[in-house]
Amino acid sequence: MTSDKLNGRQLFEKIGKPSKIVAPMVDQSELAWRILSRKYGATLAYTPMFHAKLFATSEKYRKDMWCELDGDEKIDRPLVVQFCANDPEYLLQAAKLVQNKCDAVDLNIGCPQGIARKGKYGAFLMEDWDLISRLISTLHEHLDVPVTAKIRVFPEREKTLEYAKMILKSGAQFLTVHGRLREQKGQQTGLADWEIIKYLRDNLPQDTVFFANGNILYPEDISRCMNKIHCDGVMSAEGNLYNPGIFNTEHTNEKDKIFPRVDKLLREYFEIVKSCEGSHASKIAMKSHFFKILRPFLPLNTDIRSNIATMKATTSFNDWEEKVVKLVEERVQAIFNEPNIYEKDVITVGETQLWGGAYRTVPYWRCQPYFRPVNGVTADKRLTDALKAATETTTVESDTGSEPGSLKRKSEDEIPHARGKETKV
């Protein structure tokens, strides 16, 4: 480690104490999306997860994933570049190729997908603490910029705490904790456990730069998370993908800021992609982002959905504009030309839920959270039902001075987070 390398708290201060963070997402947190997210309030962004060995050895892979504008001081900072790896030397080679274009390099030890199992990286390194330590310490000792890490949790709090301590001792300068188990993915995603994240925050050194990840639906959930966990920042993945306005915490009374119209956001994003000359990753990701931005709008505009489905990375920008962007603009504008639009364009706030927040009812022409259905039931209903069932648990008090058979309603802090029953929110 060079004597002038910043430690975690120094780096955090240097990059402006970021509290609203775009998560690393495979093929989704690419350059254009990071630029858009920053315009809507994000204060730090991570790249997609890059495969360290391929990045180090394959020029084609590197050109597909990275271009001159990535990490540009004017449009793409502060930035953390994330790699998955299981070989310290390949990880170091890859990291050295980007260390002059980023503020830190992150090791992904949280990816739970099958490809990570097959390649032995991400969350499938969680049993190999020696290898994780060598991966982190190699970067810590030989890289010009700090190394950080993003983890998932074990079922046992104490084991997770020892795991986190090992990662910090190895040299990680930021620690991001995704409060889900490795098994919580797909239909088993479930609710992230803020209690275990808080436990880690309370029991790790207080000068640790600590980010929380999970359960962010609306801008106010960011402050709610920070107040509960006392973390330095909050990371969002899926919430940000469906609505970049989730980071606009300073504009919670401005619906165009926090629930932007799909036509306005689509146009803004499309123009950013066109401006990212040389970013193959941005063009590749555009189709997926279009589907997510327009998710509430497409069921009532199936012809536009069909048009997007036919698009490819090689499709001209002109075709994208004529067959999708302009059509969306025309149809949303027609809605706003209706005489009763101000009565219809209203966002309503529901009652506070057991998980601490409240659901919104948002018009379909605005970006909003997505509750992925599983077996015909959406995540918001499963989540609420599971927590409601937990609060109705009957506890027989004994040896406490209370009468036998008395009922005790659990407080929110006592409610165990149900795992494997809901979809990620």
From TrEMBL:
Keyword Oxidoreductase: yes
Biased composition (Basic and acidic residues): 409-425
Composition-biased stretches (Polar residues): 391-403
Enzyme class: oxidoreductase
Signal peptide range: none
One Pfam family here: Dus
Family label: Belongs to the Dus family. Dus1 subfamily.
Protein name (Swiss-Prot/TrEMBL): tRNA-dihydrouridine(16/17) synthase [NAD(P)(+)]
UniProt source species: Kluyveromyces lactis (strain ATCC 8585 / CBS 2359 / DSM 70799 / NBRC 1267 / NRRL Y-1140 / WM37) (Yeast)
Lineage of origin: Eukaryota, Fungi, Dikarya, Ascomycota, Saccharomycotina
